[in-house]
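Write out the 3D structure for:
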Amino acid sequence: MSTQIILTAPVDDLGAEGDTLTVADGYARNYLFPKGLAMPATAANLRRVESLRKKREATLAAQLDDAKAAAAKLVKQSYTVIAAAGEDGKLYGSVTSADISETLKAEGIEVDRRKIVLEHPIRELGVYDVDVKLHPEVATKVKIWVVNQEGAEATSTKAEGAGEKTSKKTQKAEKKK
């Protein structure tokens, strides 16, 4: 026996949300219906799904526009991830998609770590082009520089020292006023 169903969520190897399909009774009754992945294909449910589909299309169009804007922002810049490394350039740990996501977040761009595609974690210093899939239709590459923590600390220490000098000069100027 078979049952007509409407998918309420995308199901791998079966279909996308809103698809009307015929599946085995047991599969629908024991798996799809209890998990909320499908509902029976009745006339009322078909009308309800059609109205939901129109709303969803508008939402997906807005998400596509947002993804294109974020991709344009990501491509314009390169980003630096600071990691501890040995003298031979090998990292003590590794740079993962979560680390890259945090770096992008610090730059003001929200990208979920699951959208950053790394075949393997980065384990050496260098420059890497990392794939980012922001939307099913929008994918881009981001240039990531993995630099040694010691070099970054020296640079930040110099910057902090310059900031202290500036703040002292500012304090002297304020005292004169």
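The first helix runs from residue 25 to 32.
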